[in-house]
């Protein structure tokens, strides 16, 4: 007994010690003292390891760019087998896995992050990063890259700038004085190393650059063409009050300064006019002619964590900051800009691969504009951080920095040479990328048409939607589910609407074969809409074979035959006015490429294929021909949204609402955009309006709850999260959101119960059937599921779910506002079809199984037969309960 008590007391003592270490580590972390915090977290782990300590240890290593150590710590978080409550862990874990070539695991981590935070596009963006990078290596070029061992140390040496007969670079090599709390190493300073021979890789011993400039943490720097002016970054830190954590929004700000050479000394140190205590400006870089100053900043109004900006010289001053735009900036971090002699912009970004590190990217400067940026190929980019590129005079060799694994312990400077082959000179190649040929007969890009006032339409205008098909197929493509869901939304909103569905083919094959194929395509859309609850008698179909092809000749950047392989879904006009003269969707005028609907078709497909600028151009042409075309305004708004031009997106969605005040989707998308730009109150108003047409759609309540949470209206947020849970009990993000609000309100017990519920539902293998609608994609009909057992009695609910002996699994196949006859043709050859009612809807299930896995087999079989939205549900007796794998 004494031994047991002694063991227990020792365990308690260890836990207390570990807890004290963690608190000290948290404090150091809050003050950006990541090096010391890492030591303390490791000490706490040695005594009593938890997921939290391992996660924070990984965060410390990630912050100081020790990516291998970060991955090892994250591995331990994941191996402990429990859902980690902070979703961003899975994003960071994916980055570290990808940077260490563990691609399959990285993809799973990004997929999990996307499911946890569906409104953050980074999850989807990075899912396939490994495959993209592997394919990119197939075109690697024979470029020489060599480490500059005469300059590099075991510290951090980076961002070289050409100066006189050598380089000026940034380094923390001096460890004898004050330390940087972030890294635990010496303070960053500027150093100069002179070339010791004609060989560009040999330098004399580096010396400190200038005492007046090296005041505090300094670097990187750039120089004017005649090298009599220097621009450099300097970090300014604000001390926190004793005993309290730093306010990280005010602690460290990077600022830019300039100085001029006078009598052999750098004098007149002048702060850049944009320096601020509210945001950073850093990484200055001058254009060759000195007319533009590029820099990186996290100032408000950008696209991501930090963006590339530039200012134009106006006399002796710099003009207003100009964001380099979505062709360069992403939702992640961009920095370290530089330019070659042709004006091409090089910079580093976290947003062009899934490694989580910085990758050097290039945006070609053509006709006064910067093209869409591309990441450079290996060996410029590696799995680590690659940045700070600069060119020598020949414009095919130069230097850059990297913390790749074959170097020293930290950032190192490398020399590159693209070789004597003239094909590798940047006039033909830009660091591994061929210059794009000019496309034949490109479509003219029109400026956005913005009438001062939008006239109100005199009557309802018939609307037309389009979906496309793969060659010789009549299966609905997943990319078109969204379009059909929007059509469903309109038809549920207005029971009087009649839809005409016209199937078309491309001209390949015989007329008889294509006639049958076009009819099958029309029927495929009918099948989808009927499964969504639309009555069959409201749908009219016709097959036209290839009698109404849209294009016979090639169109720039378009798959012409894909455009021809289409269904047209057109609402019949409900007015006696002759609207056909304005927009006759079935007229031969479609063959005229200047006709509004033709431009709409091409724009719609470009939007789907990610050609957002092309989509904007073609939607603008449709609008120019017919300004009262709400679908064209709506589509263009989506394209602007995709390139983060939220101002223009909001303008277009506003215009749709002016044209058609009951255009539900416009309110929804405007609400989503308002949420993105911080107009939470406007988002609440738009989501409330959308709810009038879609009153029982769980995701709308989830979004409005997010907006209320942003506004600090916690009671309303909790109410909306609760309604979302009642409508869809398995949508675990609502539990997570409500738990976060409870935590802010200090109701820890309720928060923990919600987090546990979120965890249990998140582990459901069929959670994708409750797929979180992307913030840019409204699921049309709204999904109403049975409410979960009372969340105020979590023990009862857990007992019900765990009592698996009484649970029956079925596959839900249809939902309808009205009863569907059991002899409906859709249910032919499906066994054990049953109906149950839920929230006023009629829901139909198939099968009857004792295990989840057996039901999952039927789900997959039914999906292959066209029941795309089939998913497993669980019942205890006659009551539906949350679905969990037993």
Radius of gyration: 31 Å
Sheet with most strands = 5 strands, antiparallel
Question: What's the total helix number?
Answer: 24
Number of strands: 34
Structural class category: alpha+beta
Strand content: 15-25%
N- to C-terminal distance: 40 Å
Helix content: 25-40%
Q: What's the shape?
A: globular
User: What are the segments in which pLDDT stays under 50 over at least 5 consecutive residues?
Assistant: 1-14, 238-250, 421-462, 553-559, 575-594, 763-805
Mean pLDDT: 76
Task: Identify the notable features of this structure and list them briefly.
34 strands; globular; 886 residues; 24 helices; alpha+beta; 20% strand
Briefly, what is this?
The protein is built from 24 helices and 34 strands.
Can you offer a commentary on this structure?
It is a single chain. With 886 residues, the chain is an alpha+beta fold. Helices cover 35% and strands 20% of the residues. The chain is built from 24 helices and 34 strands. Strands 12, 13, 14, 15 and 16 form a five-stranded antiparallel β-sheet that branches. It has a five-stranded antiparallel β-sheet with strand order 31-32-30-33-34, with helices on one face. Strands 1-25-24-23 form a four-stranded antiparallel β-sheet, with no helix packed on it. Helix 19 (698-711) packs antiparallel against helix 20 (714-727) and helix 21 packs antiparallel against helix 22. The longest helix has 29 residues, at 2-30. The protein is globular.
SSE layout and pairings?
Elements (H helix, E strand, L loop, with lengths): L1 H29 L3 H14 L3 H13 L3 H13 L8 H12 L3 H14 L5 H6 L1 H8 L7 E4 L9 E7 L2 E6 L7 E2 L4 E2 L2 E6 L12 E2 L8 E7 L5 E9 L10 H4 E11 L2 E7 L9 E6 L5 E6 L9 E8 L2 E2 L3 E2 L10 E6 L5 E5 L9 E5 L1 E2 L2 E2 L3 E2 L10 E6 L5 E6 L9 E6 L46 E5 L12 H13 L5 E5 L7 H21 L7 E5 L16 H5 L1 E6 L24 H13 L3 H14 L4 H13 L3 H14 L4 H14 L2 H14 L4 H14 L2 H14 L4 H13 L3 H15 L31 H9 L4 E10 L17 E5 L2 E9 L2 H13 L6 E6 L2 E3 L5
Parallel strand pairs: 27-28
Antiparallel strand pairs: 1-25, 2-3, 3-6, 4-5, 6-7, 8-9, 9-10, 10-11, 12-13, 13-14, 14-15, 14-16, 17-18, 18-19, 19-22, 20-21, 23-24, 24-25, 26-29, 27-29, 30-32, 30-33, 31-32, 33-34
């Amino acid at each position: 007994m004494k031994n047991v008590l002694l063991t227990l007391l020792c365990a308690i003592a260890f836990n207390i010690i570990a807890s004290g270490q963690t608190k000290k580590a948290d404090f150091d972390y809050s003050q950006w003292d990541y090096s010391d915090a890492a030591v303390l977290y490791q000490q706490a782990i040695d005594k009593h390891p938890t997921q939290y300590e391992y996660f924070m240890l990984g965060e410390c290593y990630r912050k100081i760019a020790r990516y291998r150590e970060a991955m090892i710590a994250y591995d331990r978080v994941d191996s402990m087998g429990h859902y980690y409550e902070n979703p961003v862990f899975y994003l960071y874990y994916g980055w570290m896995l990808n940077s260490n070539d563990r691609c399959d695991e990285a993809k799973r981590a990004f997929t999990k992050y996307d499911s946890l935070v569906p409104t953050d596009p980074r999850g989807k963006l990075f899912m396939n990063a490994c495959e993209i990078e592997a394919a990119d290596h197939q075109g690697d070029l024979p470029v020489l890259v060599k480490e500059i061992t005469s300059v590099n140390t075991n510290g951090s040496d980076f961002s070289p700038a050409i100066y006189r007969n050598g380089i000026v670079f940034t380094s923390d090599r001096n460890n004898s004085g004050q330390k940087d709390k972030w890294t635990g190493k010496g303070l960053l300073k500027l150093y100069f190393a002179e070339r010791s021979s004609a060989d560009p890789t040999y330098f004399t011993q580096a010396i400190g650059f200038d005492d007046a400039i090296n005041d505090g943490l300094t670097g990187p720097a750039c120089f004017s063409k005649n090298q009599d002016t220097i621009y450099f970054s300097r970090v300014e830190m604000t001390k926190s009050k004793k005993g309290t954590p730093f306010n990280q929004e005010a602690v460290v700000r990077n600022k830019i300064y300039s100085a001029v050479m006078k009598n052999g000394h750098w004098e007149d140190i002048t702060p850049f006019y944009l320096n601020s205590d509210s945001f950073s400006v850093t990484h200055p870089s001058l254009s060759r002619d000195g007319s533009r100053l590029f820099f990186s900043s996290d100032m408000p109004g950008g696209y991501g964590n930090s963006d590339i900006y530039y200012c134009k010289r106006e006399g002796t001053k710099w003009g207003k900051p100009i964001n380099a735009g979505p062709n360069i900036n992403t939702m992640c971090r961009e920095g370290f800009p530089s330019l070659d002699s042709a004006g091409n912009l090089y910079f580093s970004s976290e947003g062009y691969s899934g490694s989580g590190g910085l990758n050097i990217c290039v945006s070609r400067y053509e006709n006064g504009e910067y093209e869409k940026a591309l990441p450079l190929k290996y060996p410029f980019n590696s799995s680590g951080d690659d940045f700070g590129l600069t060119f020598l005079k020949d414009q095919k060799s130069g230097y850059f920095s990297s913390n790749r694994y074959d170097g020293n312990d930290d950032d190192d400077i490398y020399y590159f040479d693209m070789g004597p082959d003239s094909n590798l000179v940047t006039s033909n190649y830009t660091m591994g990328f061929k210059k794009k040929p000019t496309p034949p007969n490109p479509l003219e890009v029109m400026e956005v048409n913005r009438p001062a006032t939008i006239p109100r339409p005199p009557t309802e205008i018939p609307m037309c939607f389009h979906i496309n098909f793969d060659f010789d197929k009549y299966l609905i493509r997943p990319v078109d589910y969204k379009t059909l869901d929007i059509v469903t939304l309109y038809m549920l909103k207005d029971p009087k609407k009649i839809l005409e569905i016209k199937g078309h083919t491309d001209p390949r094959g015989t007329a008889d074969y294509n006639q049958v194929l076009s009819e099958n395509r029309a029927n495929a859309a009918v099948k989808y809409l009927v499964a969504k609850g639309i009555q069959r008698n409201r749908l009219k179909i016709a097959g036209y074979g290839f009698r109404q092809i849209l294009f016979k000749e090639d169109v720039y950047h378009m798959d012409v035959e894909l455009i021809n392989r289409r269904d047209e879904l057109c609402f019949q006009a409900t007015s006696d006015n002759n609207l056909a003269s304005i927009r006759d969707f079935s007229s031969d005028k479609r063959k005229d490429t200047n006709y509004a609907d033709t431009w709409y078709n091409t724009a719609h497909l470009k939007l789907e294929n990610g050609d957002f600028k092309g989509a904007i151009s073609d939607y603008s042409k449709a609008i120019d021909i017919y300004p009262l075309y709400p679908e064209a305004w709506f589509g263009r708004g989506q394209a602007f949204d995709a390139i983060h031009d939220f101002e223009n997106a909001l303008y277009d969605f506003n215009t749709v609402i002016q044209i058609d005040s009951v255009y539900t989707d416009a309110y929804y998308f405007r609400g989503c955009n308002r949420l993105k730009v911080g107009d939470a109150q406007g988002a609440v108003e738009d989501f409330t309006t959308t709810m009038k047409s879609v009153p029982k759609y769980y995701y709308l309540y989830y979004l409005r709850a997010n907006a209320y949470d942003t506004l600090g209206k916690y009671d309303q947020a909790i109410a909306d999260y609760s309604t979302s849970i009642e409508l869809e009990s398995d949508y675990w993000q609502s539990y997570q959101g409500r738990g976060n609000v409870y935590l802010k309100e200090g109701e820890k017990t309720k928060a923990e119960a919600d987090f546990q519920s979120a965890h249990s539902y998140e582990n459901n293998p069929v959670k994708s059937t409750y797929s979180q609608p992307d913030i840019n994609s409204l699921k049309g009909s709204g999904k109403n599921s049975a409410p979960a057992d009372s969340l105020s009695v979590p023990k009862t609910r857990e007992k019900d779910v765990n009592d698996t002996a009484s649970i029956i699994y079925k596959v839900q196949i249809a939902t309808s506002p009205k009863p569907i006859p059991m002899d409906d043709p859709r249910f032919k050859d499906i066994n054990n079809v049953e109906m149950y009612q839920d929230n006023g809807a009629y829901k139909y299930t198939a099968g009857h199984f004792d295990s989840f896995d057996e039901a999952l087999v039927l789900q997959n079989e039914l999906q292959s037969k066209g029941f795309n939205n089939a998913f497993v549900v669980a019942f205890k007796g006659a009551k539906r309960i949350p679905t969990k794998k037993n």
